[in-house]
Amino acid sequence: MVAKIQILVAAHKKAAMPRNENIYIPIQVGSAIAPMKLPGYIPDDTGTNISAKNPYFNELTALYWARYNSDADIIGLVHYRRFFSFSKKKDLNAILSETDIRDLLKKTTVLVPKKRRYWIESSQSHYRHAHHGLALDVLREVISDKQPTYLAVYDRNMARTWAHMFNMFIMRRAEYDAYIDWLFEILFAVEVKLQDDVEQWNTYEKRVYGFLSERLLDVWLAKNHVSYTEVPVTFMDKQNWLRKGGRFLARKIGFGRV
């Protein structure tokens, strides 16, 4: 039997979607608290879900939904503005195809974005400059308590100068279920400890659990010796690098993390 592939395209608003690949399924994240349902999109508030937590968990509400409500054999997540693609063209017809995915997964277990390199700082220092460091302190405490065999791997990963970001990946079902169960056991425990502090943070920083999870995928892959292949990510929108750089510098010197 041919394995069923479902690549969720996380979106909170109407956006252009792939038309030539029926494996790409638009999912409305945070649909439980949205003013309206998006026509043609799967709402992430059906079945077992955490849709209402979207302001804090971001695209992770789609991943949680798929764990309990998708029957696919291979599951992935991309964003309405970011897709896996070997082409540099901002073209939805040039993104990773079903054939590409099947061929790649014959040789590896997981597909991830190409590494984001920080060069002059570690993954940990980058996070602390961009976000509230308290979240990392609590995260490490929770890993030490609930998943102590992962702690050394976590520390090594946080000392690296690269990471696979965006919470984007494509996995076979067995690995997907195992990863999601592990991830949310940690994040829900962090949420309990952080919830009072998070309510004092601005809208951007409240997305803390989505930010933390970007640092956890590599930990799980490394600890479980899961093979992966990197695939480039194409940003469909034009990137305003001057604006992005200004925001990063503002966060780096302490502004914007209220």
From TrEMBL:
**Pfam families registered for this protein in UniProt:** DUF4422
Sorted alphabetically, which InterPro entries does this protein's record hold? DUF4422
| Domain DUF4422, first and last residues per copy | 6-224
- Its protein name is DUF4422 domain-containing protein
